[in-house]
Amino acid sequence: MAEWKKVVVSGSSAVLAGLTVDATISGDIGGNAATVTTNAALTGDVTSDGSSNATTIANDAVTTAKILDANVTNAKLLHDGLMIGSTDISLGATGSSLAGLTDVTATGRVAAANIGSSDGTSTLTGSFAGDGSALTGLPDATDAKFLVYTTGSGTDSRQSVGSGNASGNGSVVSGGKTNTALGNCSTVAGGKGNCIGTNACHSTVGGGTNNKVIDGNSNTIGGGCGNFVWNGEMNTVSGGYNNTICNNVYYSNLAGGYNNKVTGNYATIAGGINNCVSATNAGVLSGDTNINAGQKSVIAGGCTNSITSAGSNGGILGGVNNTVNSSKSFIVGSGISTTVANHTHVSNLTTAGSITGSNICGTGRVQGATMGDVDGSSTITGSFVGDGSSLTGLPAAAIETYTGGTSGRIITAVDGTSVEGEANLTFDGSTLAVTGNATISQDLTIARNLIVQGTASFESTENLLIKDRFIGLASGSAGASDGGIVVEQSNVGGGKGAVFAFDGLSTGRWGVDLDFNPTASAYTPAAFMSNVVIGGGASPAASAPATAYVKAGNIYAATDESLWIYSA
């Protein structure tokens, strides 16, 4: 329940029923059977007996007791030793040896000069920390327990245990399962079911599953699944799935993707799906079902694009269903089915130089510093963007249409060739009449009186000097109402700002709000002004203040200089 409560200030005496603090209490605490609860130095009950000046700490009241260093002796302990195995270690001893232990288990690190029994029957499990340079007593590295590789069926070949078969001379199968290296000096690094054929010397399969190098020297498959290199040399399939390089191909590269195929020398497919390159020095960078059969041509991406055998030196950057079937042609965009020789089709083109040709067509914007032939025979069709202020060579402007020709009307432009007399803007030589709203962006000087028949609003006044001592707000109200002063802080929401106002409709108090819309018809304070009542007695009970001031946060200054605050 809200009531007047006495304020305790520094230097004054306070009688409290209880005290709860969040930090260490310094000084004396008096009283009989006083209870102090603190969340810092102590937790629990600290009881003071006033008759004997003794302090008792209840059981479990203190979670951590602080004792000066080196002030607890063994004599103060109920148990002064620690039994480990069959060894009794006295607390405070500088060191002891352990005996009677059959197993030692640790989740951390075990460090010692010697670990293990002298007969070598000890077993150590877990991870090992360090470089092992100081370890002694280890078995010889040729012991069968430490061998990782065995000799393959080929001369000077090696294969890891259980990895597969290294039958080619100088071949290696270093890991994985059911891998086969039949070619001389070939390597299968890992994976499963990978194979290098008898005639695929100096080739490598890095890993993956069911990858095969059947015929051709110095070929590489990096990994993936089901990739295939046949009858070529120095080709590379980096990975992916079911990709193929075949048909006596040399120096080609297939980076990855799915179902891609290279049958041309020096060709490249970077990725994508179902792409095919059959021409020399051609490439498909990515995309879906692109076909490149043109010499020295490139398809950068897109879907079902094609450069045919006649499309040498052509290019397609992207789009859908594009086709280049003539030499030295280039496409950027989509939906273009064919081109003619030495032409370019683009969706957007920007150049710092000149673009010449019999026809230039575009569905977007064509812009330039100079457009058209010098003899003026060029034709430009379409819409025009801009104000035309920099255009030259145009015919002189002319007024072709004039409407509303009544005396006194002021003429305004309708468009480039038409004007009209404004019915709402007239001047008879002495009076300027404006029917409608008027906006003046510069200073307005009035030599005589300014008569405002409606509402005058001042939106941009730096300083306002008023000689009247009192300002009446809400003067048209017939009863209680809200009103105040707003200092605008933003142009959002009708000019929101900080308000100092009186809430006459609900609380009857002065208050503030830092986010108030001045166009609102009502006001609810976000915070209230505290009023100080100079009381006529030693307490509000002795001399009650007016009811209007019995509100939360108000202060009562008593005659004995004590302070009271009204709160719940």
How does this model look, in words?
- A hairpin with a 5-residue loop joins strand 44 (555-557) and strand 45 (563-567).
- Strands 8-9-11-13-15-17-20-23-25-27-29-31-33-34 form a 14-stranded mixed beta sheet, with no helix packed on it. The chain has an 11-stranded parallel beta sheet with strand order 10-12-14-16-18-21-24-26-28-30-32, with no helix packed on it. A 4-stranded mixed beta sheet has the order 1-45-44-43, with no helix packed on it.
- It has 568 residues and is mostly beta strands.
- The protein has a domain at 532-567.
- 0% of the residues lie in helices and 26% in strands.
Give a brief description.
The protein has 568 residues and is mostly beta strands. Helix content is 0%, strand content 26%.
